[in-house]
Amino acid sequence: MLNIVVFGAPGSGKGTQSELMIKKFGLDHVSTGDVLRAEIKAQSEVGKLAETYISKGELVPDEVIIKVLANVLDAKKNSKGVIFDGFPRTIPQAKALKTMLNERGTDISVMLDLKVDDEELIDRLLKRGQTSGRSDDNLETIKSRLDVYHNYTSPLIDHYKAEGKHKEKKGMGTIEEIFARIEKAIEEVK
Length: 190
Ligand code: C5P
Ligand code: MG
Description:
Elements: E1 4-8, H1 14-25, E2 28-31, H2 32-41, H3 45-54, H4 62-74, E3 82-85, H5 91-103, E4 110-115, H6 118-132, H7 139-153, H8 156-162, E5 166-170, H9 175-189
Parallel strand pairs: 1-3, 1-4, 2-3, 4-5
Helix pairs in contact: 1-9, 2-3, 4-5, 6-7
The structure holds cytidine-5'-monophosphate and magnesium ion.
């Protein structure tokens, strides 16, 4: 299986680039943020809990999101590979993901780290907020999401470097330019 962690700060283009990867490589896509937003829409117990964190730009507790991910993964058993978008966000989540994949006889192939300046991230998210209807695409929440990224999520870069899985890619430029960089990185691990 070709399992890809698409990594980067909020607004770095993980979702946009995932769509292109799905088309080109025939992979499955798991966006934990999308899963949580669907749970909120359905007003499930997990959704109600997640909403209290998402609206503040905070992270849903590890044990909750790990369970959500495990359920989604079980539904993708016969996949050629999975793109993990927005997960893992903490070291415990990365360890849990590795265990889950190993138990299923597979592992992470590569972690693609999309690099975008904070200033551009804020611009992109504010622009997205005009149409996304997301409760967290406003300036105050964007700032907490970036703090959470820098404090809790960015340590994953060293974690995956230590495993020899980290590939950094410039996430600025046109969507096509960025995808060309990603394609090259995937061809190298395929
Ligand atoms: O990935 P995305 O930006 O769509 O996630 C939106 C929000 O969902 C995050 O800001 C966070 O509140 C929550 N989330 C989380 N843990 C994850 C993924 C998303 O807490 N692994
Ligand atoms: Mg996204």
